[in-house]
Amino acid sequence: MRRLIAIAALLGGYPVLLVAALWPAPAVFGAVAALSYVMEYVTARAVRPLPELLSRVHLGTTLRFAVRETMALLLVARTAGVDSPWFMALAAGMFAIHVVRAGHTGLALRLKGMLSRMPVTTRNLDVSALRIPKMPPPYLRDSRSVRFLYLDALPVLGAAAGAEPAAIGAVLALALGAAGALALIPYVRRATPLTDRAKVLTVVGEQVERYRPEVILYFSGATAAAYQARMWLPTLERISRRAIVVLRERGMAGHLDSTTLPMVCIPSAADLMSFRALSSAKLCLYVANVGRNVHMLRIPHLRSAFLNHGDSDKEASFNPFSRVYDEVWVAGPAGRDRYRRAKVGVRDENVHEVGRPQLEGISTRGPELPYRTVLYAPTWEGWNDDLFHTSLITMGPRIVRALLDHRPRLRVIYKPHPLTGHRDKRATRAHKKIVTMIEAAELAKSKARHPSRASGETPRIEHLIVTGPEPHLYDCFNQCDLLISDISSVVADFLASEKPYAVTNVAGLPEQAFHERYPSTEAGVLLGTDLAGLADLLDGEDTLARARVKLRTYLLGPETPDALTRFDAAIERVFAES
Q1: Quick count: other Cβ atoms within 10 Å of Cβ 29?
Q2: For the residues of 166-215, what is the DSSP string, one character each?
Q3: pTM of the model
Q4: Cis peptide before 471 (omega within 30 of 0)
Q5: Is pLDDT at 303 greater than 70 in this prediction?
Q6: Which residues in 233-256 are b (16+ Cβ under 10 Å) and which e?
Q7: Tens digit of pLDDT for each residue in 485-538?
């Protein structure tokens, strides 16, 4: 409905423009034309998919502007006549505006192409020798040149005032467009040396060699999966060896947190395998099983170790692909046992328990507020139905509704997985429903009068929806008293807090079979599809505190020595053996 209203508002003025031009009615034409420009600007930002949808039915942005220009020409033809020199100047000017826009688009595309063809990009490395130019403002480097189209508002709106103002407006628009196109030329000229593949690789290689990396963190994947590498950056900043991050997708560095670690992005497999500047490294760490890992695995002098991006009972934590690595590093004994039970070809002597250094900041104390906080952190829907562990689709909205309706009142923190909706749009719909419920609860509370202290009610509670990287998941752990989650590494990591938790039984397995298959759930409340068990979590007595402490050691390893010490020791062992 929202899209239909937006389309009607955007296109509804064009018939009126035609009538006003042919009538002619210059004042009406000017008012409707001005409104149509406003609607173009608003809908392009407020209704994101709309421009693409209209382009599919041949009503794209350029065509809509050209139609408005044609209407302006009709209006001037009716008011001044086609023999008027001002009409001729306006027609020539309108044509020239599009010629200039085409020139700007060509320059913007060339600049974009030069930068996208760089064989390697970097972060936290001194590559000043390349003299990479500063980028022009966004409106200049936009290869679609949409903002240049808005310059035709000068002649189109000028047509409402007469032929002469319209022609003068066309000249002004042409001059401004030409100035914008000419402004791009110096940027293109300065970026030309960046297309010299050999020079770029040499300069970057020299800087990497000067740094002499010893450990590599390798990552390839979609931007939505950037969290998989992001979680390891603070740990690698603290190890005793020099670490570097190697990425494969352009722009990925921008999706990682600020870090002191040097980063290089090498999209080409051939360039990566021949990048000799990495020869000082002895160990390469992998955080995800993706096809592009094979390019780094082919480098013979590097010992490979699979870290994973979480230690959980999910099938991804004992993937058969893991046997391609020299070693598999897990948090605690539970990780070793998973590979033993799965029998996927990973030899027991190649599994090493290194802890989870990221968990050091997780507190065992709650937020100590006058009300309790529940964190609902469902996982995503997985790559296929065998990996389907999310409660979001079948249980999510009912869980959140029960939390919002609970008495005494609870605070809800909702943090869905970054990949939610990646495979199944039902998850996206459930997510939106939950967001709407929480926002409605917030709105209802803001409209209600503040309760008096004498009433004995709890103070104002502000729920939290977390869909971005901040606050971090572990910060959410520290802000909550209880967790509700699915089979995922969230459960294992939450055990570091020793707080009560519940795990959803999406498949409806018998309780004993569920705990046997998913050991991380043994010290938690089992939450059935009918929400049985939720009352025990929220209102029952906590009888699993000792079980959580014991399970924590099994999943994450011993508390002493600390996880960072064990992780660092694993790295040193590799260097000693090599």
Answers
A1: 27
A2: HHHHHHHHHHHHHHHHHHHHHHHHHHGGGG-HHHHHHHHHHHHHHH---E
A3: 0.81
A4: yes
A5: yes
A6: bbbbeebebebbbbbbbeebbebb
A7: 999 999 999 999 999 999 999 989 999 999 999 999 999 999 999 999 999 999
